[in-house]
């Protein structure tokens, strides 16, 4: 049984022009111990998927799914209390924007200790618990590479640089030793050395503890080193998903192909000063979504059939949604 | 931190200086002899006049006069009242505590009612509870205080006879004037019927305090509601939910503090409205406070009293505002410390 199983997740947002499907039939599966990358341009709804999984979306947005389950338990119909327990014990999230995701009026230590669940403390008297919490917090900080813990535990988020805040977010996400870590752009705004350090930490946790990671990022190079599987998202639709090496070697969807082409570090044969491959146009805004396959207007292979949403097709474990995939020649 | 306190101190001193300039100027603006307006004495004897002119340095330049005016203000020699002939310093500091007492109770009561209701409305944003509270607060906010006070007198003291009509305490009780706060005075005194006096004083206080409270509560409610509505969709609140905290934990640990910090200075701003309302209410309930005293002085064209009373009241308002603003910034870790002080 997959750890996290999402089938046809649709998220609708109300706007002045009526309801807009910000996520359109997104499917995502995550096995235990797997590192899955979730890739897409900015504005493709990556963070919305993260927010729908953790339930941090405004109440008036409509969320529907054929299946959205955690270890077989349905997340949507579940009581908020049960869902909270799963969030507390099994799933941890690193949000995209560390400074906004930390309470500006509470010290970082306070917030880090808050996310340490009670069952990790050994049964002492209640006055010993604060000290135990602090010990665990300091250990966590050392783990994510913060050495001067006493200086930062007292500090407020506004007084610290972004990458320290981000490390605190990571530390507090790891506090409950979760089974699944959802990392929404965890290395954003970090220097290369700290970035490597964090990625190594995550990889190690995955190898040693069997932590599953849903890794949301733009950074294709980091992803290709870490992830086993990848889901590519365009404009709120899943376009392709499968094993990392399969997708890299032989992408089936034109968008995946263009995405790989656009990353210079992926192409070893790139001559100097040659223009980089790009798709024409930009990602459409939510108010002007095309019907059918949303890549349509930008797709080099688009034909008349593309105004209908393509069915998801599969070749073994490789899923793609395209009428004219790259392995079939155009008529 | 030091720089920050210093900036507030600068602002305070400069504002007080402007107030002093204005009150000094008033002596010249009012009809009649400036010297008479400053001293409050009718100086018929030329020798007395000469002596007073000497004391106020009337023959020197305006700046020297102002300097000596400041010195006299500092020494507590504020002149005399036309109508009562008593020293103004004495009169003002006898009546000011009554106003401060009234406003303090009204403010505490309105915070006690307004903040929880504001949270309730903010957490139930756009639902029936919210709309009902908002409607009630609009009614409370837009009711004129003097009219409300008269209605309350009509209903509660004339029709129902629950509360006394006016004054601070029944004439039967002789409360020594010690701190000026009547409840504290009764508590400290060794009167024979302390309990009865306390009950009587509280009965006198109910209606004036309530009339001020209604308006202030409406303001506090609206401010709190807005702050809560702004904080609730913030990412850190969502992140706290995602960390698996319960709704109560999220609200107590993250929402309350973040909502209250920005409205503390805004509440300080309301002290002006609070004091103005208190002064109006005092007149209607014959409460022996500064407002009642000042309005009597205006009726009687008691120029020295108007000058000194205006200075005292505005000093109180400015001190309160700047002090609370400073306090709010010191305890608020989210704000930039170096920001300039402002009223």
UniProtKB/TrEMBL annotation, chain A:
PANTHER family: OLIGOPEPTIDE TRANSPORT ATP-BINDING PROTEIN APPD, PUTRESCINE EXPORT SYSTEM ATP-BINDING PROTEIN SAPD
Domain of life: Bacteria
Main location: membrane
NCBIfam families: oligo_HPY (TIGR01727)
Listed SUPFAM superfamilies: P-loop containing nucleoside triphosphate hydrolases (SSF52540)
Family: Belongs to the ABC transporter superfamily.
Locations listed in the record: Cell inner membrane
Keywords, comma-separated and alphabetical: ATP-binding, Cell inner membrane, Cell membrane, Membrane, Nucleotide-binding, Transport
Gene Ontology MF: a single term: ATP binding
Span of domain ABC transporter: 4-260
Official protein name in the record: ATP-binding cassette domain-containing protein
Gene3D superfamilies per record: P-loop containing nucleotide triphosphate hydrolases
Pfam families: ABC_tran, oligo_HPY
Organism ancestry: Bacteria, Pseudomonadati, Pseudomonadota, Gammaproteobacteria, Alteromonadales
Automatic annotation (TrEMBL), chain B:
Ranges annotated as spanning the membrane: 12-30, 102-121, 133-158, 201-224, 263-285, 305-328
Keyword NADP annotated: no
Keyword Membrane: yes
Chief localisation class: membrane
ABC transmembrane type-1 domain mapped to chain residues: 96-328
InterPro entries named among the record's database cross-references: BPD_transp_1_N, MetI-like, MetI-like_sf
Subcellular location: Cell inner membrane; Cell membrane
UniProtKB keywords: Cell inner membrane, Cell membrane, Membrane, Transmembrane, Transmembrane helix, Transport
UniProt membrane topology term: Multi-pass membrane protein
SUPFAM superfamilies reported for this sequence: MetI-like
Gene3D superfamilies: MetI-like
Record family assignment: Belongs to the binding-protein-dependent transport system permease family. OppBC subfamily.
Protein name: ABC transporter permease
Organism field: Fluctibacter halophilus
């Amino acid at each position: 049984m997959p750890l996290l199983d999402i089938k046809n997740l649709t998220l609708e947002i109300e706007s002045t022009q009526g309801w807009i499907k910000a996520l359109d039939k997104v499917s995502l599966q995550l096995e235990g111990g797997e590192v899955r990358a979730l890739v897409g341009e900015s504005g493709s709804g990556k963070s919305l998927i993260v927010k729908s999984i953790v339930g941090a979306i405004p109440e008036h947005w409509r969320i529907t799914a054929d299946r959205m389950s955690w270890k077989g338990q349905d997340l949507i119909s579940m009581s908020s209390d049960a869902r909270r327990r799963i969030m507390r014990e099994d799933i941890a999230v690193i949000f995209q924007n560390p400074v906004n995701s930390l309470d500006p009026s509470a010290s970082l230590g306070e917030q880090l200790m808050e996310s340490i669940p009670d069952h990790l403390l050994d049964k002492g008297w209640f006055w010993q618990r604060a000290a135990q919490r602090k010990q665990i917090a300091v250990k966590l900080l050392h783990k994510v590479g913060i050495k001067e813990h006493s200086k930062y535990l007292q500090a407020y988020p506004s007084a610290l640089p972004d990458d320290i805040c981000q490390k605190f977010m990571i530390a507090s996400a790891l506090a409950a030793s979760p089974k699944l870590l959802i990392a929404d752009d965890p290395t954003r705004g970090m220097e290369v050395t700290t970035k490597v350090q964090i990625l190594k930490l995550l990889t190690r946790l995955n190898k040693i503890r069997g932590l599953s990671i849903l890794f949301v990022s733009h950074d294709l190079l980091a992803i290709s080193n870490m992830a086993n599987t990848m889901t590519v998202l365009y404009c709120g639709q899943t376009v392709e998903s499968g094993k990392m090496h399969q997708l890299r070697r032989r992408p089936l969807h034109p968008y995946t192909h263009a995405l790989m082409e656009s990353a210079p570090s992926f192409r070893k044969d790139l001559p100097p000063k040659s223009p980089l491959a790009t798709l024409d146009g930009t990602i459409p805004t939510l108010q002007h979504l095309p019907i059918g396959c949303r890549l349509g207007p930008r797709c080099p292979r688009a034909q008349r059939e593309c105004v209908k949403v393509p069915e998801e097709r599969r070749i073994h474990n490789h899923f793609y949604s395209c009428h004219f995939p790259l392995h079939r020649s155009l008529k | 931190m030091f720089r920050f306190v210093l900036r507030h101190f600068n602002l305070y001193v400069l504002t007080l200086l402007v107030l002093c300039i204005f009150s000094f100027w008033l002596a010249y603006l009012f009809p009649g002899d400036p010297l008479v307006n400053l001293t409050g004495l009718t100086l018929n004897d030329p020798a007395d006049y000469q002596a007073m002119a000497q004391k106020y340095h009337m023959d020197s330049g305006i700046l020297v006069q102002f300097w000596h005016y400041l010195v006299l203000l500092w020494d507590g020699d504020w002149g005399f009242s036309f109508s009562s002939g008593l020293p103004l310093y004495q009169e003002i500091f006898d009546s000011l505590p009554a106003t401060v007492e009234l406003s303090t109770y009204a403010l505490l009561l309105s915070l006690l009612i307004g903040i929880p209701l504001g949270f309730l409305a903010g957490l139930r944003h756009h639902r029936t509870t919210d709309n009902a509270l908002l409607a009630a607060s609009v009614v409370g906010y837009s009711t004129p205080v003097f009219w409300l006070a008269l209605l309350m007198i009509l209903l509660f003291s004339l029709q129902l006879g629950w509360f006394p009509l006016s004054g601070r305490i029944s004439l039967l009780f002789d409360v020594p004037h010690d701190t000026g706060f009547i409840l504290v005075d009764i508590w400290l005194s060794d009167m024979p019927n302390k309990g009865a006096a306390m009950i009587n004083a509280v009965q006198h206080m109910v209606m004036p305090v309530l009339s001020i409270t209604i308006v202030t509560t409406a303001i506090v409610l609206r401010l709190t509601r807005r702050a809560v509505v702004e904080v609730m969709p913030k990412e850190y609140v969502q992140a706290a939910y995602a960390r698996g905290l319960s709704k109560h934990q999220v609200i107590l640990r993250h929402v309350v503090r973040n909502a209250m910090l920005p409205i503390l200075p805004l509440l300080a701003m309301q002290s002006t409205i609070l004091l103005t309302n208190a002064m109006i209410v005092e007149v209607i309930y014959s409460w022996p406070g500064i407002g009642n005293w000042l309005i009597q002085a205006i009726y009687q064209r008691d120029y020295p009293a108007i000058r000194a009373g205006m200075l005292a009241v505005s000093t109180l308002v400015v001190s309160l505002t700047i002090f609370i603003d400073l306090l709010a910034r010191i305890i608020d870790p989210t704000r930039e410390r170096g920001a300039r002080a402002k009223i």
